[in-house]
Amino acid sequence: MPGTLPRLYAHPFSSYSQKALVALYENDTPFEYRSLEDPQANQELAALWPMRRFPVLVDQGHTVIEASCVIEYLELHHPGPVRLIPADPKAALQVRMLDRFFDNYLSTPQQKVVIDRLRPEASRDAHGVDEARRMLETAYAWLDRHMAGREWAAADGFSLADCAAAPFLFYAHWTHAIDPAFANVHAYRARLLARPSFARAVDEGRPYRHYFPLGTPDRD
Ligand SMILES: N[C@@H](CCC(=O)N[C@@H](CS)C(=O)NCC(=O)O)C(=O)O
Description:
Blueprint lengths: L6 E4 L4 H12 L5 E4 L3 H10 L7 E4 L2 E4 L1 H11 L11 H30 L7 H21 L13 H16 L7 H12 L1 H10 L15
Parallel strand pairs: 1-2
Antiparallel strand pairs: 1-3, 3-4
Helix pairs in contact: 1-3, 1-6, 1-8, 4-5, 4-6
């Protein structure tokens, strides 16, 4: 509908929600925040998307699922001064590839460890959790080499890939501590935490830290 704001179904403590929020905050994009702390927003989400995974963006008759696609959609329909996907298709491919890295090899194993802890003890999957922790180690090692001499994940400046990296590295370190030897990863995580868009998302998530089932570390 003309004149209505894009509506984001999200939760302030959720990593994928923060990924989309960073993109919105980078460009000061006006939107309506349907926080999933509100049961009514949860009902609306269930009607929009039976998987009930979030974030979900609703805008001008479109329902957009998947945080990466939400950011792609915002770039197309609500562009701002910060381009999160480079106009050059070859540079854009690099950004998208790194975005996949952060989703698949950082967030997926990080979620596995956390979700396993929420299960009843008898139903936990120790082998799967070991595999997830090994994947996180491999991802940290690869990222440490990748980030050598870089400021942001891809060459052209802050991008979609960094929107993903920010919350995923944030929670990955809480879940499976990043070895201090991976200095490039630590420095990158600190740069992301200092970025105002992500610092804002972290602050908005602060009241919900008790939701984290592995215990909240006294930092960040
Ligand atoms: N592939 C989805 C993943 C989204 C996702 O896993 N979101 C979590 C919150 S961080 C969620 O919806 N959790 C609720 C659930 O699993 O039911 C994306 O890229 O947006």
